[in-house]
Amino acid sequence: QVQLVGSGGGLVQPGGSLRLSCAVSGFTVSIFAMSWYRQAPGKERELVAVINTGGGITNYADSVKGRFTISRDNVKNMVYLQMNSLKIEDTAMYYCNRYGSRAPWGQGTQVTVSS
Q1: Nearest 5°: CA angle at 78, between 55 and 104?
Q2: CA 3 to CA 25: how far, in whole Å?
């Protein structure tokens, strides 16, 4: 059974940082490109960051480029998202998933940026 469980979200002030984690079970992340998505209230889910199987190639949405860093630990079957210089517009529910051949959406983690 595939499970994608996000954690690490919370309430942070503008300019702050958070590190999100995604614990994956039911498949081996090492053979998939992985990604983080987010969905703000009233908006469609959007792709935030992608990382290839080996971790050497990453790609980011223009809105987070230079502030967010995606990484992975294939041994631990985990995916991470380091978020720095957070802005109010980063407020959303964040989810991880396979890139391309997406699995059923799992538990996201809420990020709220507010002063």
Answers
A1: 105
A2: 5
Closest CA to 6 of 90, 97, 83, 86: 97
The Cβ of residue 13 has, within 10 Å, a number of other Cβ atoms equal to 10
Strand partners for 5:
23, 107
DSSP 45-92: -EEEEEE-TTSS-EEE-TTTTTTEEEEEETTTTEEEEEE-S--GGG-E
Query: What stretch of H or E contains 59?
Result: strand 58-60
pLDDT in tens, 5-47: 999 999 999 999 999 999 999 999 999 999 999 999 999 999 9
Cβ burial of 109 (10 Å; 0-12, 13-18, 19+) is buried
* CA neighbor of 73 nearest in space, from 9, 29, 20, 26: 29
Measured CA to CA, the distance from residue 64 to residue 81 in angstroms comes to 11
Instruction: Give me the residues paired with residue 58 across strands.
Output: 51
